[in-house]
Amino acid sequence: MAADCSNKDSEFYNDVFVSSPNLVNVEVDSEVPSNPIVYVNATINRFINVPGQAHPLDIYKSTGGAAKYNFTYELERANNGNWSVVDITDSMLTIQKGQAVSGAFVYASSVYNTGNQFYEYRVGIQSLAPGNYRLSFGYNSTSTTDVELRSESLGSNLYLNLNSPYSALDAGGYYTFTIN
Amino acid sequence: MKKLALILFLSFQFMNAQEAGTKSVLATKRNEFRVDLLSLAVSSKMNLTYERFLNSSFSVGLSGSYTNSAKVNEDFDQGNRNNSPKYEVTPFVRYNLSKGISSFYFAEVFVAANGGDFRETVLLTDENNNGYYTIQKTKYSDVAVGAGVGYKFYIKDRFGLELLVGFGSNLFNKEKSPDILSRVGLGFSYRF
Fold first, then answer.
1. Nearest 5°: phi and psi at B82?
2. Cβ–Cβ gap A2/B77 under 8 Å
3. B184 with A2: Cβ contact below 8 A
4. Which of A13, B19, B104, B172 could form a disulfide with B79 if both were Cys (CB 3.0 to 4.6 A apart)?
5. Which domains does chain B have, with CATH numbers?
6. Which burial class, exposed, middle or buried, applies to B12 when counting CB atoms under 10 A from its CB (0-12, 13-18, 19+)?
7. Amino acid A124: pLDDT
């Protein structure tokens, strides 16, 4: 009998990690002052620029045609000097592109559009009470600089992890805004 | 207590008598073929061994194995491991530790030429000048050295059962080959 051991056994070899900035952004739309909407956008070209790589990276082909890239974010509201998580209900979400599952955090999916070859996500949170808010990406993530997206790959295809630095995040990893 | 001592004494005498009786028969049989039943059952690995007994203390042999385990292949394809060992050719030298003939402990040293499939993620450029990641599969080969210990006993001066536990370390290609090779088995043998 043979059990061939490796010090690399704990690894998962189908993961690939790349960094590409500003794939996700936050936008506060105050066009209707009585009901401002906070949009999270993740509209990502199939071919992204990766610092240090000579050619655009095909993130669709690399994953064997992954239909989605998933990421998470949560929203907190200042309450007497403390931050408390905003429980987001389905009725608070306005989904224009992609998919979102609400709860204590939003499970977001940027969905591939075969027509324009973009992964698309644009989902707003509305009906927010006036106050100070902060939005952070990655439920349980320790990153304070990046939004972390992961391909929803099938079978034995590679899983592409897109770590996307977002310049609008503060030193603690939060996007802060105020609803008046 | 006296009865127990008597039983132990008689048992010891009986075992010695049996050892002496089988000594001359087994000592004249210097060749052995063996198949590893455990690896066949557990990991779909066919392992055959020829062993030549040089004298009462030393023997030499050659083991050859091939495996195509569905579980290992599945783990390999799904990225849970980056190599899939396929073959091993293992010459070995054994030393009889207990000087018995019909049953004895032994120690061995071995060298194992081994190889299999290796996978890695590579960044390529397609015909449209776009980069993409893909899994590239190649072959690996390496040589390991190691040691082991075991116990063997014979039935009817012909059929043997052997338990072996040993480990070796690959030397030259650890980036692709497994760091450690195990040589653990339960072998059924025929001596002639």
1. -110, 5
2. no
3. yes
4. A13
5. 31-191 (2.40.160.20)
6. exposed
7. 96
